[in-house]
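Subject: nicotinamidase

B.,
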Amino acid sequence: MVQIDQAKDVLLLVDIQNDFLPGGSLAVKEGDQIIPIVNKLQSKFQKIVATQDFHPPGHKSFAANHEGKKIGEMIQLDGLDQVLWPTHCVQGSFGSEFSDQLEQKNWLKIFRKGLNENVDSYSGFFDNARRGDTGLNTYLKEIGVQRVFVVGLALDYCVKFTALDSIDLGFDTFLITDGSRAVNLNKNDDQLAIEKMVAKGINIITSQEIE
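Prediction pasted inline below.
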């Protein structure tokens, strides 16, 4: 069991937004099933923060912004490999909003990402080129956080990269598996993501192990 230290621990909710839920433009299978689990987890933490994918409509990661390109194709974007996604989480859209089933009243802060149309942002800490900083790292250190517990969507992209950055930045990092779901563009992407996190020293737990 993992005992929560309210002074040092934070629950980090990654991109639990309408476009990543069933019916959304980039729906994660069973993504809605994490919401009751996440809501129950929130009652165990005093420090809760969230990330929000928040793209301008012209974002270059959208297949619709590249003539003749299809969703799932790879391109070079700002010198980085980039998978082309459906248009999603556009600023001001319903899809960018958090699920209305998600408890939000105790959140300390929301960190928006993906605002620069020329580079994608999977991690809640930095953009994919590591040139843009959301301020999450500085904020967590200012409020005394030492351990980060990560949940959200999607496990094989934004959750994975957020957790990897978290541990690189010196936080003891936990992935709560039943509070996350994967896109799985390729079969077993979720398992590969977990293996990569384990190799970096991230703790893999379930919500039942938290007290």
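The chain has one domain: 9-55+88-209.

T.
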